[in-house]
Design brief:
The complex is a heterodimer of chains A (183) and B (600).
Chain A lengths: L4 E6 L5 H7 L4 H8 L1 E2 L14 E7 L2 E3 H13 E7 L1 H5 L11 H11 L21 E6 L9 E3 L6 H13 L7 H4 L3
Chain B lengths: L4 H7 L7 H12 L4 H11 L3 H10 L11 E6 L2 H5 L2 H12 L5 E2 L5 E6 L11 E3 L2 E3 L4 H12 L30 E3 L12 H6 L5 H11 L11 H10 L6 E6 L8 H8 L1 H15 L3 E6 L7 H13 L16 E6 L9 H8 L23 E5 H13 L1 H5 L9 E8 L5 E6 L4 H7 L5 E6 L5 E4 L17 E6 L4 H16 L5 H18 L5 H11 L8 H4 L3 H9 L1 H7 L12 H11 L8
Parallel strand pairs in B: 1-3, 6-12, 7-8, 7-10, 8-9, 11-15
Antiparallel strand pairs in B: 1-4, 2-3, 4-5, 11-12, 13-14, 13-15
Helix pairs in contact in B: 3-4, 6-7, 9-10, 9-12, 12-15, 18-19, 19-20, 20-22, 22-23
Chain lengths: 183, 600
């Protein structure tokens, strides 16, 4: 039987959830016995080369590029999982949601103390190649259908391990209180 | 000259637990509760300004800014809309020259929305400076605004004459009508106040009273249906020197107005019931908690209580029973549906935000000021008097085995005879419709928004605790109504407005559900939106109180009983659609950086 294929992406996140995935420590060796990895920052595969079984998404969508990547994952992954607070709720980046895009850009490029005296042309970056900020940060499920949600900031390595192995073995997940409680 | 904040505080002896009364009086005297007033109250009561501010900000009828010399609160309940609220509201706006929830620049008129005010059989209705103005029409609104501008007093605005029964009492003088259509043991006009206290209590021990209540099998009439005798017994057995009786007259469930009629026409029966309960559990103090919307009954009720003292039916050694002392005070609310939940009501009566408490402990163990407290509905107290008067066996002859006695129901909506009906438990929905003269009925909302929306296939189901349980609100809809747009959306908005915000589930989920419902109503819905709503609604069960737990009932019961109405609005084959629009989401960012999408 072919091994299940996993892909991962970090959208508007901090890579903390990916770090947590690495926190499964030596079980990473078990994991690569169990699955193959496709597009992911972990192996630096940049484009999908196969259809995948499981997609792990870290971060919400704050740029149009995030939306494109997320939609691509939806098209290529049978099961798509929101991994961590930002993917589920927007997380820290969503703190800008009450502030207009223009105000955010002006603070970042014109008025902030670290840029105030250096941006002489008072330019807001606008090259066509640059991704565009969305009007607010969206959690993934507001953009595409998400199948599962793994909460945490980041989700505990144990939670990620349990979730992945349960999915792969088609078993119910073992979820002791310690794994998902607030700390 | 408006009464000063100092004199209001002095009236309540700087007692922090009377903060509600202080805020009510300041609001009434000055038309708003500003920061200086809050600072003053905090200082005098020994509270922080945040303590005072959090109570003030919780209640709908407390305002930080002036509400106008004439503060007009127009009801937003489903019944108001069914009876032409849109046209009435528009006329108010045009005539006053301002949109709702603002005040005219000269400070004369304030227009505000407000949740159901208990006048569902005479809508659209508004409260103007505490006085009720029912049966509004655009014509009547023009008259009102013209007369207000002409400088008439609120009393002079009345042109239709006062209502029937005690509504015309000099202490009430309300335009409200009772619309009593069917009487039974509770509403029986042939009632002799004080008879049970003088003839029965004097001959019974408290335990005998409780035993009789238990034998009658009477259950709470507020909606939850907890056995009354058991509640009294638990409270009697709780060890404490101080126990309290509280009457819950905070009926806020849209479509219910029966307590208003009982408070108007049988208030002595209710007060006698509180005395009976006090005797049974050994309470020395009682509180009659009345919703703010019924403030027009205040003087009337206060005088009745004073009269009971004079006749030795309250106060010391009641009816000559040595050592049986019982005092009652009235506590008014200030506009909050959640205060109908007993622990929230207790918090409110203590002068705090009306947020439900975590349970257990239940109020019978730790209630008002942490002491054992019985909280019962208006109708429960009234029924208790009749149980003692005629005996448990007589009482059990009414209703069904499981649900004994009668229920006073408020019927409104599409029927010829809306009003108050006292029926035996066991009436079917069909009976209700027939009795009220309703034809072409599409649906009946049983138990208000927190109850069920039932269709024709359920019309032979009966009102009782085991089948269709209800606190008494019945709203009838005929086939001209759009159930989803007119009813379900209205009810869901009501829960959003009235959530106390304490539990995140009830604070957030109804908003998410309403957005989904709107998506479906806008013909943007897909099949999974319906199943999502059913699934997501389940998280509300984790809310602290019954009100939060039932906040999705309008959506859940309408999907269950009127699924075809949803399916009709679902578009195409698409199985999932989040409604996300990338072009719209990037517009702001593109414009801010001077980039524009290609016109192609």
């Amino acid at each position: 039987m072919q091994k299940p294929v996993i892909a991962t992406a970090s959208l508007a996140g901090c890579f903390g959830c990916h770090m947590s995935l690495l926190d499964i420590d030596e079980r990473i060796l078990d994991l690569i016995e169990l699955v193959d990895f496709n597009k992911s920052p972990i192996n630096d595969i940049k484009e999908f080369t196969a259809e995948c079984d499981i997609g792990l998404i870290e971060g919400g969508c704050c740029l149009d590029e995030n939306v494109h990547v997320l939609r691509e994952f939806r098209n290529h992954c049978r099961i798509l999982i929101s991994m961590g607070e930002c993917a589920i709720m927007g997380g820290l980046p969503a703190m800008r949601n009450g502030i207009s895009v223009r105000e955010c850009l002006e603070e970042a490029y014109l008025n902030g103390p670290s840029v105030r005296n250096y941006n002489e042309g008072k330019v807001l970056p606008n090259d066509e190649e640059l991704p565009v900020l969305l009007n607010r940060v969206y959690p993934c499920h507001e953009v595409v259908k998400m199948d599962y949600f793994l909460p945490g900031c980041p989700p505990d390595a144990e939670l990620l391990w349990q979730a992945l192995t349960a999915l792969i073995h088609n078993k119910e997940m073992d979820l002791p209180y310690e794994v998902f409680k607030f700390d | 000259m408006a009464e000063s904040v100092d004199s209001v505080i002095a009236r309540y002896n700087s007692d922090a637990s009377r903060l509600m009364d202080i805020l009510i009086d300041v609001q009434s005297a000055q038309g708003f509760i500003g920061d200086p007033a809050i600072a003053k109250i905090a200082e005098e009561l020994g509270l922080s300004t945040a303590d005072v501010e959090q109570t003030r900000s919780f209640y709908h009828f407390f305002s930080k800014k002036p509400t106008g010399k004439y503060a007009i609160y127009l009801n937003t309940s489903v019944n108001a809309y069914m009876m032409g609220r849109d046209a009435v509201a528009r006329t108010f706006e045009v005539e006053a020259g301002i949109p709702f929830n603002t005040v005219t620049r000269d400070g004369l008129i304030g227009l505000f929305d407000t949740s159901c005010i208990g006048m569902s059989d005479q809508e659209p209705a508004a409260i103007i400076n505490g006085k009720i103005f029912p049966n509004l029409t655009p014509f009547r609104v023009k008259e009102l605004i013209r007369d207000i501008r002409a400088g008439k007093s609120v009393e002079e605005l009345v042109v239709e004459g006062y209502g029937d029964g005690q509504n015309s009492n000099p202490d009430v003088r309300a335009v409200v009508r009772n619309n009593i259509r069917k009487i039974g043991p509770v509403l029986d006009p042939d009632y002799k106040p004080g008879e049970v206290i003088r003839k029965k209590l004097t001959e019974m021990t408290p335990q005998q009273v409780i035993d009789e209540m238990k034998r009658s099998n009477i259950r709470g009439r507020g909606g939850a249906g907890f056995p009354t005798g058991m509640k009294w017994e638990i409270c009697r057995q709780a060890e404490s020197d101080e126990k309290y009786i509280i009457c819950n007259a905070d009926e806020g469930e849209p479509g219910t107005f029966k307590d208003r009629v009982i408070l108007t026409e049988r208030p002595k029966l209710l007060l006698e019931g509180m005395v009976v309960a006090a005797y049974a559990i050994g309470a020395r103090q009682g509180i009659l908690y009345v919703r703010h919307e019924y403030e027009y009954l205040k003087t009337y009720l206060e005088k009745l209580i004073a009269g009971a003292y004079k006749r030795n039916l309250m106060g010391k050694n009641i009816a000559g029973i040595e050592g049986f002392d019982f005092d009652v005070r009235i506590q008014y609310g200030a506009g909050s549906y959640v205060c109908g939940e007993e622990s929230a009501l207790i918090e409110s009566a203590e002068g705090k935000r009306g947020e439900p408490r975590d349970k257990p402990p239940f109020p019978v163990e730790k209630g008002y000021h942490g002491q054992p407290t019985v909280v019962n509905n208006v109708e429960t107290f009234c029924s208790a008097v009749k149980v003692l008067l005629h005996g448990a066996d007589w009482y059990r002859s009414f209703g069904t085995t499981d649900s004994t006695g009668t229920k006073v129901v408020s019927i409104s909506g599409d029927c010829r005879y809306p009003g108050i009906y006292e029926v035996e438990w066991g009436f079917s929905v069909n009976d209700i419709c027939g009795m009220a003269g309703a034809e072409d009925v599409m649906a009946v909302q049983v138990g208000g928004p927190s109850g069920s929306l039932v269709g024709a296939s359920d019309f032979d189901r009966v009102l009782c605790y085991a089948d269709l349980s209800t606190g008494g609100s019945l709203i009838i809809f005929n086939h001209t109504r759009d159930l989803l747009e007119d009813v379900v959306l209205n009810f869901t908005s009501f829960f959003i407005e009235e959530s106390c915000g304490s539990c995140s589930t009830c604070r957030i989920m109804p908003v998410i559900l309403r957005d989904k419902l709107r998506k479906i109503l806008d013909a943007r819905g897909v099949k999974s939106d319906i199943t999502d709503m059913l699934e997501w609604a389940k998280v509300l069960k984790s809310s602290r109180c019954g009100l939060g737990q039932t906040a999705a009932n309008p959506i859940v019961t309408s999907i269950r009983n009127f699924r075809h109405l949803y399916d009709q609005k679902i578009r195409g084959e698409m199985r999932y659609d989040t409604g996300f629009d990338l072009t719209r989401a990037t517009q702001e960012g593109m414009a801010a950086t001077g980039r524009y999408t290609h016109a192609d």
